[in-house]
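#structure-requests
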Amino acid sequence: MKTANHTEVRGFVFQGFSNFREHQLILFAVFLTLYLLTLAGNVIIVTIIRVDHHLHTPMYFFLSVLSTSETCYSLVIIPRMLSGLVGLSRSISLVGCGTQLFFFLGFAITNCLLLAVMGFDRYVAICNPLRYSIVMNWRACTILASSVCASGFLLSLVQAVAIFRLPFSRKNHTWVTEFTFQGFSSFREHQLGLFVVFLALYVVTLAGNIVIVTIISVDRHLHTAMYFFLSMLSASETVYTLVIIPKMLCNLVGLSQPISLAGCATQMFFFITLAINNCFLLTAMGYDRYVAICNPLRYTLIMNKRVCVQLVGGACGIGLIVATTQVTSVFRLPFCATKVAHFFCDIRPVMKLSCVDTSVNETLTVIVSVLVILVPMGLVFISYILIVSTVLKIPSAQGRKKAFATCASHLTVVVVHYGCASVAYLKPKSENARDQDQLISVTYTVITPLFNPMVYALRNKEVKDALLRAAGRKLS
């Protein structure tokens, strides 16, 4: 462990326009006027584009997104600048500074990329006018806008983490720069056996999810909303396991290396993002099953491609926002210990290494856990209550059996996924025991991702038929 003695800096002070002290009131009036005009102009643009159907075109869609982004961009910076000009507080905490930097960079990069997308839109409109409506359809526009936003905030996160892992200090405090995973040290004599078991499960999980994504992509019979969500879930589960399991396997065979604070924060960020993304994808799949069974005549109208893409984008967006909030709150803490009593950078084991009281962080974790576990789980079960009530009205037993069969695979995955997540993050803190927590963590990081391909491949007739078609066999 590398250490350096320093006094931890907990806040900064903006110098602002201190060189123009005698003109600060004038600057305040000028900047306030410009700020109000900017806000009013952007709000008017967004409102007009939304209410006037003549402006419901890709060009104005991107313009409304840009105006919204510009509004948020100015909100991040100018109000604090104005308060500094009239002598109000110029100090900002480390977490406040990190948050401001993150959103400033996120919106700035998003704006740059949006302008590039708008240039592409104009290129298609002028150089390929006959294909314009096909190329720049609503699905393409939504994907472009979502990708631009995600790219901006991902790059912003990388920058913010890189800067705020630097020491802001004076002297006389131990600064922790890296962590070491204790992993399965309590099972030292069984580590080789655990390595073989986890490696086998990991290979099966990867192979299964890759097969599902590939089959759904190449087989046109599976180009439906349900299988689109399934392919997104499989892709997310694949990346989710890649974030955690390879390093865990290295630790089991003695190849463990310390992980830097930035590396730990990055692993935690992707773990939280993908875990929450999976929760909301399962909710979207539950809604899809509800529409299919309770509104079959309107299914293709309700679950069109645009809605499906928006649901997936929303799931991913929620994951990114919550992960950013959680990682920022954890890694603004000062750390005095280096041994993480876990096999990856989970929230609670990392917080236990802090030198200060983490009650606020614990409360935030519980609130976030309730919102991202119980809320989507409640929505799924409400969907199934409505589904069951509709299915029971079907007169034929064969019809009821077929309806339940379409939901069985999804319901199995939901129960396992939400059950493990609830036990891991909603149980009382007093019940936390290291071995117990690791056993639960193995369940939702190794076992649960395996359920997705196993359940959907072995229990789903359409997927099995698609596999047979891909293998060139005749269906019986």
